[in-house]
Structure formats: C-alpha cells, structure tokens
## 1
Amino acid sequence: MNFSYDIAGGDFVNAGQASSALKKILKSLNLDSSLIRRTVVSLYEAEVNVVAHAWSGNIQVNIQPDQICIVVSDKGPGINDINLAMQKGYSTASPEVREMGFGAGMGLPNIKDNSDVMELRSTPGEGTELKIVNKILS
Amino acid sequence: MKLKELIEQLNLTVFEPGNNLDRTLSGGYASDLLSDVMGYAKHDMVWVTLQNHVNIIAVASLKDIAAIILVHGQEPARDVLDRAKEEGITLLGTESDTFRISADVYMSLNQHGTGSR
C-alpha cells in the first residue's frame, strides 16, 4: 500500500495531517498500537522539521506485510552537520518556531528512538532526505 | 483512576469532552515543549500545558494522550477547539498554574494508586 503527502514549508496549521492520516490507515490494518504510535511520532517529527526548516516537502509511505517504510524529502537549506543535528538539544529553529514549543533539538533524536532504521542524507543548499523503517512483527 | 473522576475531583473545565471520558489514566505529564511530550509522555496520560495552538491536538492525538489541561484560565483558541472535536481529544482547563495543577493531578492519581509516569 502506498501513500503520498505534500508538505508546505511554514504551514504549522497543517503540520501533523499526514501523521493523522497514516495513523488512521495503520489502525485500520489492526497493527500493534505501540508500533502505530512509534511510527506516527517519527512521521510527525519529520513533518514538523520540514514545516520549520524547509520550503516544501513530500512524504512517501510504503506499507508492506513486514515493514512500514517512510521517505520524507524536502527542498530547503539542508543540514550542514548531521552528527551535530542528531545531538539532543541542538537546534537551528527560529525564535517563532521555539515559541510554539518546537525547536528544542529533540525532533531527530525522537525519530531515532521511535524507528527501527533511520537514514538521513542532506545536501546543504538543496534539501534533505529522511528514511524511516519500522518492522511489523507478526 | 478514570478521566471523568479526575475532572470531577479537580473541578476542571471541560471545553471539549472528546470521545472517551471513561478511559483509565496512566499518569500525567507537564511540558510546553511539544517534542518533549512526543518523546517522553506515555499514552493515557493527562498533559498539562500553556501552549494553546492546533499542534497540541496533533501531539495529543498521535500519542494517545487522554486529555490536555490548559492552565491559567486560558480558553482554547477557536481552531484548537475545532481540531479537538475532529480528533476526539478531551480538552480541559483550570485557573491554576502548571505547578499547582500538576501537583493536584499527582495527588489525585496517587490516591487512586496510579503512578505519576
């Protein structure tokens, strides 16, 4: 099953819509509730990252019997130092974004904690691609 | 302890009842950082916050949070209320500040033998 969703940079009102839609799909498949939560938490953080940092983005979700694979790619400033970005507490978010309770430097670490496989690639000045895989245990 | 018992005991304002006032609470969490809640709050907890924008509903929904308690007598913004309705999220309020209401929630849950986390 495939699922695609576009994200607009700066659109905080709709941040989380893709995660909500995915949650409904995963629930309808009767998957384990802890797996559902981990997956939608990962996707939500990824959505917020695109909204907070990039100009536009796209989410591709592929659900197979043994795994859920999510690829979030964006056009944006990219990440200069991925190791630094992965550190808890490190953030380049604007003051406005921080006021809303985002930009605490916890998004990427949260994704890592809530996914079985996380791959992050970025080209500064062009954009970022994040791949998340969560395994479905039968 | 059930959510509706907590609401009664602490005299919380119900802005939106959500879809399950009978759910059993697993604990409480107080934070205004959404990623902190995403990372550390657990399902069926009540979440105390002063953040009052639509993203709190998304966070509560995705984490299966039992209810959001808005502090300082804040009324939810219109779009927050609408989104809570759509998502079936229980939205509550109190005149207290975060410290006091968190202490009250903690005491209530402990009296009922529910841990704080």
## 2
Amino acid sequence: MAILQEISENLQKGYAPKVTELVKQALNNKLDPLQILNDGLINGMNIVGVKFRNNEIYVPEVLIAARAMYAGLNILRPILTQTGATYVGRVVIGTVKGDIHDIGKNLVKMMMEGAGFEVIDLGVDVSPEKFVDAVKNYKPDILGMSALLTTTMLNMKDTIEALKSENLRDKVVVMVGGAAVTESYAVEIGANGYARDSVSAVERAKELVLNYK
Amino acid sequence: MKTLLFDVIKGKKAKRVPWVPFVGVHGGYLIGLGADEYLKSSDKIVEGISTAIQRYRPDGIPVAFDLQIEAEALGCELIWSKNSPPSVSTHPLERGIQIDSLKVPSEKDGRIPVIMDALKRLKEKYTDIAIYGLVTGPLTLAMHLAGTDLLMNMLLDPENVEKVISFSCDVATKMSQYYSKNGADVIAIVDPTVSLISPQTFDQFLTEPYKKIFNFIKSENKISASFACGDARKVIEPICKTHPDSFHADENVPLSMLRDSTQKYNISFGGNIPLATVLFNGNETLSQKVAAECIYESGINRFVLAPGCDLLYDTPPKNLEAVGEVVHDVPIEKIGAYITEKASQIVEEEIAPYKVPDYTSLDHVVVDVITINADTCAACKYMVEAVKSIGDKFMAIPPFEWSEHRLSEKTTLSMIKTFGLKQIPSIVINGKIAFEGIVPTHDELVKKIREASERKRK
C-alpha cells in the first residue's frame, strides 16, 4: 500500500507532522489500524534500526525517527486498545539504582515500541524493590535493566536476587544491557538475555518471548 | 619519566613505552575515601595521586578525572556517590535558562580552585612526572547544559546547538588556560559522547571548536590530547584532522586501527587496557598479559600505554602495580615471549579444561589454528593462510573445517591447557598437536589432515 510505504519513509526521515497527517489519512481511508502500525510505523522503525546498527545513521537520527514514530503511535494507540489488538509482549524497563544515564535505555525503549512491544518505563535510578513492585503490578514478559557504570551494574544482580526471594524469578524473562555490561556478566548473574545494542535487544526480546510464552 | 613521555608523543625513539594510569576516583580508594569526599579536597587529591605515583610508577598521571567540574560551576546539579564520579542530574538550559546568560566560569568558581591547587602542588612535588589536566569536551559539556535533547536538536535546531557548543568550547579553552597557568604538562579534551554522532555531524559541529582548543593549547606550549570513549571508530579520522598531539581511545577501538589512523596524521596514540574485564575483574597475570598485548599490537613508536578510560574506584591496586612492572621491567624485544609466558600462567591458574568434541562422530576433520591474533601477528597470519590455502588447492583431501582461535578468547586458553600447547601459533588437528610455532608446507598439512581422517576410520 503506497500510503503505508509513505508513512515508513517519512518516519525514517523523522518528519513527525507528516507521519501524523499520513496516519490520520490512512485511518480515514479505512485501513486496518494494526496494518498501519505493522506496515507503516514498525516497518519504518525496523529500517531505522538496521541503518543504526550498520552505522549508516547515529543516535541523533534515531531520536528524531522515534519522535515521528511516537507521533503516529499516539494516534493509533487508543484505537488499537479499543479494538483489542495485542502487543508482541510487555516490557518493564529501567536504568538501575545509582545510575542516571538514560540514552541507552531510551533507545532500547524506542526500538521495542517500534517493534510492537508495550513498554513500561520506570526511568532512571530504579531500586531492586521498584523493579520487583513493577513485575508484581504489570506482570511483564520481560524485565529490562540498563547500566552505564560498572559500579552500578552490580545492582542488576541484587534485582535478580530480589525477584528470587519474592518467587517471581520464573515469572519474567530478565534482559540486561548497557555500556558496562557484558554477555559473561549477564550469564554470571543469571539473566536470560543480553544485548550489546538496542537493535539486538529487540531481536533477543522477540526470541525470548517466543520461547517463554 | 616525563621526558620519555614527551619524546614518544613527539615521535622520537624511546627505550620503552610510557605509562599513564588514569587515576580519578580510584585515588580516593587508595587513601580510603569515597569519591564524594575525595574530589572536593585538594589535600586529598594530592595524597591520592601521590600514593598512585609511588605504587604504579607512571610517566604521566591526571590531576583528576571528573567531567562534571565545569558543569557544576555552570549551575548543573550533581548527584554524588561513594564509588564513582558524580553525575549531572539537572540541565540549566532545560530549565529555561538562556545560553546567552551563562558566563564562562572563573578560576574561583565551583571546584575549579580545588583542582588547580592540587595541580600546583603535584607539580612542585613531582618534577619528573607529566601531570595531565582533563577538560570536559565541548559536546559532553553541551549535553550537560542542555540534556540529551541536544542530540536531536543537532538536526532540528542546528543554529541553537551551535551556540551551546560554541559556549562549551569557550569554557574548554578557558579551562585549558587555567590548567596551563597552573603547570599542567598535557591538556586533554575528554569527550566521551562523540561516539554517539556521525563523522559528518562531528565535522559540522565540532571540527572548528576542537581546532580552536588544540591551537590554544599549542600556543601555550603544552601538549594536547583527545580522549574518546565507546565505539569511536567512525570519528577517529575527523578528530585526527583537528590535530591534537595525541589521541586516546578505549577498548572499543582496536589499537591497530587507532595506530594506523593516527599515524597518517603524525599523531601519538594511547590506550586501551580494558577497565572492567581486565583491570577490575582480572588478576595481576591477566593485567600483565593484556598490557603486554597492547604494547605488542601497537609497537613502540608513538604509543602511550593507558587504561581505556577513568579507572574504576576499587580497581585492585596490585593489578596496576603489575602493569607498571611490565612497562619498566620487560625489555621491548621480549614482549612477544612474555605474552606467551603469561598466557600459559593463566592457563595454569584458572582456566577450565576445553570440552573436546567427539571427533569420531564428525563427518569432517577439525583443524584448530591457535594464534595471538592473525591481524596483528605476522607468524599467526602465515599459519592461518597456510590452512586457508589448502582448502582451495587440494580438492582431494578429506573434508575438514578450520577455525582461528585468538589468545584474547577464553576458550583459546582452555584449548592451550587441554592440548598442552607450548608455543603459539600452532595447529591442532582433531585434538592432536600437528604444528607448533612452525608454519607447515601444503604437503605437510595435507598429510596430517589425511592421517587424522584415517585414524578416525580405524
């Protein structure tokens, strides 16, 4: 469909007002909102993700594309909720206690939303207790923790331990990432998944949700 | 030795590689203080850095590693912690303050006097060690002032971003002047956020500010340096074009790449012992092996050995002392043998045995080529090429699969232990050592592969 292609292309360029206009137009044309989401917004964000990973575009360009994606998503969301359309999965995400760096966490959030996940963002400096409460309240498929600093990444382990003591560890897939984190650290603390960048995080999240659901 | 460091940066021949441990909050750890107390007192900084100098035997050392000093003096609020540098929690420009109303900090603002006092005293105390003054880079300071939206506004509102960066550049130039006046030998522009932007964006916003700052530092007859963090591979060239005297990167940039890029511009380069996996989590042997590998990969010309970035607060001091030993006590011509010695020591110390596959159940022969790194070690490269080439030329040999295992991978160390290898590079065929330290001819290699295949059939 030409208009969906147009949505995708404008999203990639970061033209938020144009994406808003086109999404409205597509709805007026009686296109299925889920199709607008999948073939317009998600398709566009996927291409942004691939270009980002290939170093064809950088963080500023991704932030602008994500802004355009949210412009479209804000129109579609209420309609999708009404029609009972389901998300790929639900993710609770946050930067761990003691760490207030959020560029990486926000990129993962954007890419996840751009791939059809519902994301609940707990923000920065999130304590293990807060993560545990969020798992209890939102019952997510995935809990994602980010840390830029090596000193704060130790708090990821504390969160996993806190989930265990509340008997919640088996109820949620735990993913970790951030500049300080490595795959071997993820294994060591008993996380289910690690990703070195936001695009890999989405791929890994999809695999994990499929395997654990 | 300060003169040795200067010689290397200027491209003169030197007997050994200079060593610059980036002691920041780690100085507090050395004297039993949290970062929040340490970075606020010139007495404590002098005590911490003096301890580091005595223990690590450096040729150069920064007075402090804190990229929030300028931001704090400009009104950013900080969150302090015991075991890491402070973080900026509020951004004045996000709170409605206009960039035109901000003033370049004076030498009396915020903690600038603390740092400058520590610098002066360290200079008096250590005449033979280069003291680095670290300046927050213009992009990082601009993001402290404006928040992360600055990145997006590079595309949406470039004029305004240019204004913020231009102001940050004025601050960096002024800070360089304060460092110069108080005796810093090397003035480094530390801009970890440059790895987030494209080379084109760097060029658009930062090339001129960088040139301006480096020109100023040179006009003060000081040595200039640029530090980048993260995956800065794409911005190495644009930064080199702004002509710092030296360029440091962390382990995300391979040293061989940094060497090749900086050499084109006649710039010295430095790095990049990994902070977390080696210096923090590893032991003395691993720290020594990796330091030696950095030297081996870089060569002695124009290379400064340093950690990838600011040392973690409680990095075990014994690991840094061990690196100091490599620099001072291992002759440069023996560095290759030293790496092998350390690798086998690690194998003895801690490596789990390699899970040997059941070769008899496979429909092919397994050829494992164990190397230091075929990209940087010539003998390793020949070994790999020898194996590669038989795949093309000898169609009649039994099917085989080969792979290179580099020393930097943990499994490789397990293989060395399990196969009992004494020399690297080596070739192991179906779990049996076939060639150690000697590159085989095609015929020799094919013969061994055939033997392995026949052994399997029996």
